[in-house]
Each structure stands twice: as structure tokens, then as C-alpha cells.
Amino acid sequence: MSLGTEDYWYIALRLICFGLLTGYADQMSRIMTIIDYVEATPEGQEKDGLIERLIAPFVTDRGIPPNDARRHLPYRKLIKVFDADAEKRPAMMLQYLEDWYEASRREPYHDQHPQPDIRSGISYFGYWSWEAAAVTWLLDIDDSTYREHQFYPKDLVDFARSQAESVSAETTIEKIKIKGGEQSTKTGFWTTPAQPNQRQHFSKGEILPTLSEQDWGEVYWYYDGEE
Predict the structure, then answer these.
(1) C-alpha pair distances (Å), 122 with each of 15, 78, 110, 112
(2) How far is CA 216 from CA 9, 27, 125, 152, 191, in A?
(3) 36 DSSP assignment
(4) Any idea what DSSP says for residue 202?
(5) What is d(CA 13, CA 23) in angstroms, rounded to the nearest whole number?
(6) Following CA atoms 157, 162, 166, 171 in sequence, which dihedral angle do they give, to the nearest 10 degrees?
(7) Which domain covers residue 219, as residue numbers?
(8) 1 assigned to some structural domain
(9) CA 27 to centroid of chain Cα atoms
(10) Which tens digits make up the pLDDT trace of 122-169?
């Protein structure tokens, strides 16, 4: 996916938000391998401040997130929420939602609802600020002052919080990422984006496949537990 297109924000940001809110935060490292930051600079790839903050707790070695969003409005305002004191965040989220629709006027989803002809190719699925929901859940913000806002998917946030509570009592799978061709550091099941929907079992010390025959490029394996 290219960060330089509208489709990136339309698809990639929603993919990340839905992943976080539906119990797949542990898969963020796999998602980030398929997201292509374009317009790379000599110092490294030009990253997005909001996306990097959303995935920071779940993906290691990403560096310090930048202080701007590649698509500015309305999203860059959420970066300030991350930096704010906890007691100020609810009011900032309420203001974000109040401004959200008008600030989204350059986004692909804006003004979709007047299209009555299904042959137009436009799919109207409602106006929802998925990123506001993801930030609320991630920062554990009290949403009592804005949970009834028309653009806020409160039910999804409630679900995410209920999932987090149930997972907290379970053993968290250790996050391990190893390049193909190197030794497995732990016995158990491993996954790779080069072979989606497949898990392979490797013993500690066993060489993880490079899968060179698949023309994937560099292959990375992710530890996925013992069972």
C-alpha cells in the first residue's frame, strides 16, 4: 500500500484501527510489513505520526514517531492528544469529533451519503471516526463526554475494552521477529507474511526458511506461541 495515495488512508488506517479494536493488536507487526512508505528520504522512510503512535506499543524498533500526519486534516489533531495530560484528553477528543466531518472534506468518504444510485460505484457505510475510537481505546480515555457523538463508534470501543480485559488475565505471547535464514530462538509455531494463514513449527536452533523460491524478498518470521 502506498502512503502517498488517498487509498492508503482510506484502507491502511482503517485496517490498523479495526485490527486494534477487534483484538488483533498482536498482529500489527505483520500488518506493517505490507505498508509501503513512499517518498523515502536519505535518512530513512518518511513515516506517519498518527499511524506510528497507534502501533508503537505493539511493534518494536520503529524509532521516534514524527510529529505530523501525512494526510493532515483531520488526523494530525490526534497527535496532540497523545502528548496531552490524561485529564485534558476527553475534551480534546470531543472537539476532534465536533470538527471531524468538516475537517474531512478532502477525504474520499466525505459527502458520500447523497448518492442514491448503487451504480455510481460509491459505497456508503456511514460516517465513523475509526481513528478516534482507536485512540480512545489505546490511551484508555474516559469517553463519557463524547460516547454519544454521531461519528463515534462507541460499541466497537466497548468491545475492544472487553477484549482487553479478558486478554489481560491470559499469558501474553512473547513478541519475537527473526529474519529467514537465521536460527529460531524459541520452540513453537512461527508465521510469516510470505505465507499468509499458515503456521509452521520449528525447534529452538532450527534454521527458519528464506522461502527464496517465492520471490518475496526478505522474509521475516514471527513467533506465534507453543500451541
Answers:
(1) 19, 28, 11, 7
(2) 25, 19, 35, 39, 14
(3) B
(4) E
(5) 16
(6) 10
(7) 177-223
(8) no
(9) 9
(10) 565 668 899 999 999 999 999 999 999 999 999 999 999 988 665 544
DSSP 120: G
What sections of 70-214 are H helices per DSSP?
Answer: 77-83, 89-103, 130-138, 154-168
| 206 and 161, same domain (yes or no) | no
Q: With both helix axes pointing from N to C terminus, report the angle between 154-168 and 14-21 in degrees, rounded to the nearest 10.
A: 50
**Residue 185 sits in the same domain as residue 85:** no
Measured distance CA(174)–CA(197) in Å, rounded: 20
Domains identified in the chain, total number: 2
Euclidean distance between the first and the last CA atom of the chain, given in angstroms as a whole number: 32
Quote the cell numbers at residue 24: 488483533
Does residue 11 register a pLDDT over 70? Answer: yes
Q: What is the CATH number of the domain that holds 108?
A: 1.10.3920.10
70 and 181 in a single domain? The answer is no
pTM of the predicted model as reported, rounded to 2 decimal places: 0.66
The answer to whether residue 80 sits within a structural domain is yes
Q: How far apart are CA 191 and CA 223, in angstroms?
A: 7
Same-domain check for residues 219 and 148: no
Burial class (CB in 10 A: 0-12, 13-18, 19+), 78: buried
